[in-house]
Amino acid sequence: DIQIERTRDKKNLDHVLIGPNGVYLIETKAWRKSEKGSPEIEYKNDKLYRSGKMVGDAPIKEALGLAIAANKLFHDLTGRSYYVKPILVFAGWYHRASMTHESRILFLNETGISSFLPKHKPRDIPSEADMSLLRAKLAVYELKSEE
């Protein structure tokens, strides 16, 4: 959980993964399941469907915006630019999505993260030095944010 404060804008990064196959921002949603319909979230044509009904694209736009904010924060901290791939997770829901490695956002459930990410082919792969630098700078940033 990383808090970003800009002049008038506060953002919360739920989770950041930094690893040998990329830098990822995970935006987690805890939507209540309805009593009617299947407990399924579907991502199709840049829209979300909840139990078969379209709910729009606000969570998608939010995850994409947070990935941009994360990239800016990482650049401010390190002086380097990192491609940050957003992942949208609806905890406890069955996910259905038509996406590829090139999709602008990944739509995965909790178990899908551990099975999909090791096989993901990211646009940019950070070096060991970049991963270490980014992890160290984030740790210091988090400590300062808690003060």
Quick synopsis:
The chain has helices at about 60-80, 110-115, 130-145; strands spanning about 1-5, 10-15, 15-20, 20-30, 40-45, 45-50, 55, 85-90, 95, 105.
- Largest beta sheet, briefly? 4 strands, mixed
Report the structural category.
alpha/beta
The SSE order reads: EEEEEEEHEEEHH
Helix content: 25-40%
Give the terminus-to-terminus CA distance.
Answer: 15 Å
> Uncertain regions: pLDDT < 50 for 5+ in a row?
none
Number of strands: 10
Please tell me what the overall shape is: globular
Spell out the blueprint of helices and strands.
Layout: E1 2-5, E2 10-13, E3 15-19, E4 22-29, E5 40-44, E6 47-50, E7 53-56, H1 58-78, E8 84-90, E9 94-97, E10 106-107, H2 110-116, H3 128-146
Parallel strand pairs: 4-8, 5-9, 8-10
Antiparallel strand pairs: 1-2, 3-4, 5-6, 6-7
Describe the structure.
The protein has 147 residues and is of the alpha/beta class. 32% of the residues lie in helices and 32% in strands. The protein contains three helices and ten strands, in the order βββββββαβββαα. The strands form three sheets. The protein has a four-stranded mixed sheet. Strands 7-6-5-9 form a four-stranded mixed sheet. A two-stranded antiparallel ribbon has the order 1-2. Strand 1 and strand 2 form a beta hairpin. The longest helix has 21 residues. The radius of gyration is 16 Å and the shape is globular. The mean pLDDT is 82.
Key features?
alpha/beta, 3 helices, 32% helix, globular
